[in-house]
Amino acid sequence: MVKPRVHRLTGDREVILHRSAGGEGRNQSTVIGRVKTPQLPLIVWSPSSPLVAIAADLVDRGSNVGFCLHVELNSTEEVDCADAMSQSDIRKWFMKSHEKGNGNSASKPAKSAQALPEEPVQGSQDNSGRRKTSKYFSAEKPKDEKEMVEVPVKRKTQTDSHEMVKPSPAKKIHKVDDDDDFVLPNTKEKPVASTPRKKLKSGSGRGTGQKPLDIDESDDGDDDEVKHVETPSKSGGRGRGGGRGASVAPSGGRGRGAGRGGFMNFGERKDPPHKGEKEVPEGASDCLAGLTFVISGTLDSLEREEAEDLIKCHGGRVTGSVSKKTNYLLCDEDIEGRKSEKAKELGTPFLSEDGLFDMIRASSRAKPKQESKKSVDDADVPISKKSMQKIELKNCTGSAAPKDVASKSLAARASLDRKKIQTAEHSALTWTEKYKPKVTNDIIGNQSLVKQLHYWLANWHEQFLDAGSKKKGKKANDPGVKKAVLLSGTPGIGKTTSAKLVSQMLGFQMIEVNASDSRGKADAKIEKGIGGSNANSIKELVSNEALSVNMDWSKHPKTVLIMDEVDGMSAGDRGGIADLISSIKISKIPIICICNDRYSQKLKSLVNYCLLLSFRKPTKQQMAKRLMQVANSEGLQVNEIALEELAERVSGDMRMALNQLHYMSLSMSVIKYDDVRQRLLASAKDEDISPFTAVDKLFGFNAGKLRMDERMDLSMSDLDLVPLLIQENYVNYRPSSVGKDDNGISRMSLIARAAESIGDGDIFNVQIRKYRQWQLSQSSALSSCIIPTALLHGQRQILEQGERNFNRFSGWLGKNSTFNKNMRLLEDLHVHLLASRESNSGRGTLRIEYLTLLLKRLTEPLRVLPKDGAVREVVDFMNTYSISQEDFDTIVELSKFKGRPDPLGGIASAVKAALTRAYKEGSKSRMVRTADFVTLPGIKKAPKKRIAAILEPSDEGVGENNEEAAAEIEEENLSDTEDLEDSAAGEKLQKELQSLNKKGVQVHLDLKDSGKSSAKKAPTGRGKGGSSAADKKTTARGSATSAKRKR
Amino acid sequence: MLWVDKYRPKTLDQVLVHQDVAQNLKKLVTEQDCPHLLFYGPSGSGKKTLIMALLRQIFGSSAEKVKVENKTWKVDAGSRTIDLELTTLSSTNHVELNPSDAGFQDRYIVQEIIKEMAKNRPIDTKGKKGFKVLVLNEVDKLSREAQHSLRRTMEKYSAYCRLILCCNSSSKVSEAIRSRCLNVRINAPTEEQIVKVLEFIAKKERLQIPSGFAARIAEKSSRSLRRAILSFETCRVQQYPFTSNQIIPPMDWEEYIFEIASDIMKEQSPKRLYQVRHKLYELLVNCIPPEIILKRLLFELLKKLDAELKHEVCHWAAYYEHRMRLGQKAIFHLEAFVAKFMSIYKAFLIAAFG
Q: A Gene Ontology biological process annotation (chain A) (predicted)?
């Protein structure tokens, strides 16, 4: 069966077109031409017609497209034959071959074969690097529909003028081909066998190919014709699609139809329909080298990760989105997603999974041929050397072209020798030391930060030390200039190295203080300081420079202090940060601080004194490049993909990457992608899985296939959050274990079981936390995560309109904190009620039974009574129970239920305003009540401040009537005998308040100013000013009044 | 002032319901030997009122001069020091507090406070009332550890300190503590008693109540006097003069639970469960204790339920309530109950109606 396929090659490179005759052995492939493909893809196209493989070099408005017509006969015999041929010609050729029909398709290509011999000459003139492409493009399956569409779209982008014209012709052509395949499989396979004929056919292609170079413009007409003829025969569906649909349907009863298009289903990618059914081929390890793949949608038998691994194992590269550099879009069905759109736009060829397998398989078959070829290459090394170099150069441009086998083996040989020498030399040094950057430019990534650091350090002395008088003024004017710098970033990305290098470059003498030194607060005693604590010597150091300010710096070595690992200043280094800050303030030398986590609580104060430079992780490409250099100089043979993988696995930690590489180099001299993966598999497990990922996996459609330990790992990834997420989302899953479930009974009972299990998890959790029974954590994970997910894993569905189909974050945390807040507020209210001594109920009772009535008493009058009366009544009631304005809000807040009318509804805003005014009114004759003296739970504020807050007239609190005031005073005296201090203060203030009216506005203003800054929960956050002002005013009279009141 | 508080009897003599208990208590304290006391009974039956009246009986009016304090205790618990904050209500002779507010650290509260009280023995050395009283509320919510430590300290400091414990259910108080106390069960007042009290209040307030109205309130109050008085006043705020068929407004949260129950009965699906979860959260956030939610929900469901299922549903409610106490995150268990109910009820519906 012959399957045509369109492939695309990108990159600035030249392709050798060669013809190989399967029957005579692979090593006899003849080079028939070279095609240059600057930036544009080479399309390999294998029509059903046998024996033809033609590549065409198209020059079309400056852009080249190579068409390679390519046929694979069967699994063992392959014929590649290429020819250069212009675009239009190919189209003509297609048409003709179709016109001729199925039977004699051989006759047409026969002509093209004649022209073949000429081609090599032309190609060799190009004198370019060589590349064997055709062997990768084996094809077996009929082309998918989208692939047919592919060609025209692509051409459209290249030849702007042909817009609407193209799509249909190509489509049609393929269609016909498909028909050929299906109708006449036998007729085609026969002619294939003989090589001479092959040549003939490809020759004919060539012959026609020469013409169109002149008559380029003429294809428009052709296109039009073609279009008219062919549009009707559109569509028709593909056989495989139907088959797949059928196979999917039985599994869980959700066919593809369940999803509404690719976008809606995002995040619930399905299982490969034939998962594990196909044999994954083994191929040459670099057979995909230089090719970039993008995977889209569900593949036929491979999981996406598996496919990725497969490609990487064979030297290919997998990227996330389609770009110009992408060679193939790997997908088995067109899900109309963004990737496929983009791919069509860019003309990226589509590749099915089988195609991929074929490529890999082909390479393993081609291997012997390759080997022999290599020997040929080796023989005439002098000739090919030049071209090899060229390829090397081109590789650097980023397209990651494959290394020629010859060059590789050569390099390997050479580097092996080198390695022996080198290892003898520096076996003692670790690579991290050995390959430390020697100049600033060697530092990977963060160049701009390094520059900034360099600039800062270079200008430090001018900035801060130049002139003593100038310095101060400058500092005041320019707060942006900081005397110290704080480098932050994850470990192993070169912070310390950059600091050292920059200092070295500028000729500073470095003094490094790191976590191994004690960095506590400097001792005040000088005798201790001199020999003892490091901090003292830092102080010394930092201030000493003062003496040398007037000297010539160039003679005097400049020093820089590098404080490494400042966030590690902990228990032993008491006051270390504060001391460091004061050192920075007085410092006469620049200080570079280095930390991992800039947002650490410890560094909060330090951050204000430092210029902040946050180092970022270098990209994997950057790292791979550097690692490659290292590997090369160590004589290690590694391919770039492997290094990128390594870089990715260590997540930006250059040091770790080098260490790993070093370690691997001890046991092997050739490192492949697979080795890296194996090596780092263990460590990869330890890397953080976000709770969301864990939950996604646990609930995933195929979670049933996870092993128990995998599930355990997932649930243990965050033992607090994962259960919460599961609890939040478990109702959303439609369990796949339940088949057809008309009425949802089974689902409901599964949910009930899951809910119970989650409850078990909660009980376990109490045991763990409360009684520290940590041995139960596995059981906890089992019951809170694994059982619910095992019961309910399946497809996620949304329960609310407009909800996104992703796992929600747990609502419990938020609700719990609201609950705690409300509880605190309720407690405040409770305490106030108790303090009013009118009520004696518990907090629970207060909420359950009193609250409804309290609310009624507080709001009902406002609704029904006239404004003034209502307000008076409410304020009176509040005073009786010492309900403050916040308490009022609490009551309202606690009575609010979602979906029920607002408890404050129906109250005119004018009345509300009047109520607020009434509170303020009260401020003039405000009494200090017992309730005000009670420190509320969780509030650690002296009563004085609270009272000062109450003094503040404009804000909150309830006014008290004078009649009640009398009663209050009495009560106060009774109760306050025990805390004299408080009552004394209170009484002072009371007195103060009484005189306040006379005293006039000034006091008011004072208090207002000082109190203004407070937060909403007023009494707690009063400024100091308020209380002190009040205190001052009262001291004089205070003693007298309190004495009087004590009786 | 609310009627509940206004007409709360201040002395043992004023008591309207439980007069026999009051008289016994009076005798008990006048005979000078006051043992530890454990009051238990349903809420709204007058335990607190009796306790306050008793204290007044013992200490006279000084017992009413209470001070609310938010005290911080520094507790030395082995290797670390724990700061505990608790609101206390204290007079010179007694301290009232709610140790279960301290959560699982209630043990320390119990130990510390009793020690502190033992330290400050009242100076009133006339000999007779040489003790302080410690009123502990909600003893049934104390953890087992706290109850154990209470047991020891009760004996150790019994010379200076009497405990009055107050709880709803004595079954949750350990046997050892119960045996160390004089247990006083306070029954819920009968509906007639409630009606009597309501009429008394109406008379004092000079209100006209139509016949049968008080009875209706009493009926609705599920024999909680406090609730009866509160809803009586609510009715008064809502509408006066009363009419005999006036609606007695339920508590806000009860209405909400009613809503939830009818939601559950209407539809049993994951979607509905999800909505119910939100409503339950709403209740919890508004500080309604989860046990009460569960209980109330069960009642509402039972009202609408087929007799066949009642037994099973009750069983599950009890089951999940127990688990709720063992656990910490109440919502999990409430939801589990709802899910269980839904699955049972759905199966039942389909079996019955196809």
A: DNA repair
